Amino acid sequence: MDVIDNYFTCEFTTLSRDGSPVTWPVTPRLLEDGRFLLTTSIGLPQKAFNIRRNPKVSMLFSEPIGSGVAEPGAVLIQGDATAEDRIVSDVSSDKEFAALAETLAVRQPAGAMWSSWLGKRMWWSYYMRILIYVTPRQAWFWPTRDFASAPEELELSGLRRVG
Amino acid sequence: VWAEAAKWLGRFDEAVLTGVDANGYPVSIRVNPRAYDATTGTLATTFPAALHVIEGPANVLAHSHDEKMWHLNMIQIKGRLESSDGGWVFQSTNFDAPAKLAFVQFLRNNSTAAQKYLDKRGLQRPPINWSAVKEVQRRGAAQRSG
């Protein structure tokens, strides 16, 4: 959980129309029910388009910089994603989205520039977000980030914080 | 073109190699970018057998951020994964080096894509709750200083 909760980003992969993987660094939030929430701007909608065609995705938590995790391992989540149709432009309208935005505000103080006078003009769609939910189907853990070694399979129930 | 890819990859300590497994899910591991061959555009690696990666489309992503999640850098190389002598080889098929004004290009593309997204759905730009944004930023700043 340390890795998932504290790594600033994970490498999130969707599959394009021709089946090629496309990977972006993103900041997700592990929800209480074991799903993950992440978002994308309507200016970067390719993740959502890919998911609507093919829900299979993966998330590799493997970048410990800034996390403060003393013994950094890595976690790979493979799962099925949904990308909502609605555009969320009120961060207070969804409790989990607000929590994710707050996490991002803590980790990335300079990100506040997108709400500055200049930032609003440069990237006007930054706060127009599509919510993406990932339901894990399989999870793997490397205790030492030695990716040539065999990973341990994680129980998906271990990702749930409740019930 | 692979020499250019190698040059860019060399700026990163690590990279992420992603392929697809036997069930059709993407699967990623970290690799050493210095293993990338600038002449052939190949990168030999070991994929743990438990992940059941298969031959097919793949990519290499290298990205970095600092301790405050800023100074973001990223490149991606498209390619294929092929099995070789009990191991795996990533074979590059396409690499576009970031443009000199990559950030300007990013913002321009972003703006075009966002407007297209709205236009296709017949939507106006939705109003943004700026006071909620400021409140999130205030709480974030309080957590950082607390």
How would you describe what is shown here?
The complex is a heterodimer of chains A (163) and B (146). Helices cover 20% and strands 33% of the residues of chain A. Chain A has helices at residues 2-6, 46-53, 95-107, 117-122; strands spanning 10-15, 21-26, 29-30, 36-41, 56-61, 74-83, 129-142, 152-154. In chain A, a hairpin with a 5-residue loop joins strand 3 (29-30) and strand 4 (36-41). Chain A is globular and about 50 Å long. Chain B has 146 residues and is an alpha+beta fold. Chain B is 29% helix and 36% strand. Chain B is extended, with a radius of gyration of 20 Å. At the A-B interface, strand 1, strand 2, strand 5, strand 6 and helix 3 of A face strand 1, strand 2, strand 5, strand 6 and helix 2 of B.
Which key features would you list for this structure?
heterodimer; A: 163 residues; alpha+beta; 4 helices; globular; B: 146 residues; 7-stranded antiparallel β-sheet; 3 helices
| β-strand number of chain A | 8
Report the C-alpha radius of gyration of chain B, rounded.
20 Å
What count of helical segments of chain A does DSSP give? 4
Rg of chain A from C-alpha positions?
Answer: 16 Å
Structural class designation of chain A: alpha+beta
Summarize the structure.
The complex is a heterodimer of chains A (163) and B (146). Chain A is 20% helix and 33% strand. Chain A is α+β, with helices and mostly antiparallel strands and 163 residues long.
How do the strands and helices of this protein lay out in sequence?
The complex is a heterodimer of chains A (163) and B (146).
Chain A lengths: L1 H5 L3 E6 L5 E6 L2 E2 L5 E6 L4 H8 L2 E6 L12 E10 L11 H13 L9 H6 L6 E14 L9 E3 L9
Antiparallel strand pairs in A: 1-2, 1-5, 3-4, 4-7, 5-6, 6-7, 7-8
Chain B lengths: L1 H8 L5 E7 L4 E6 L4 E2 L4 E4 L7 E12 L8 E12 L2 E9 L6 H19 L9 H16 L1
Antiparallel strand pairs in B: 1-2, 1-5, 3-4, 4-7, 5-6, 6-7
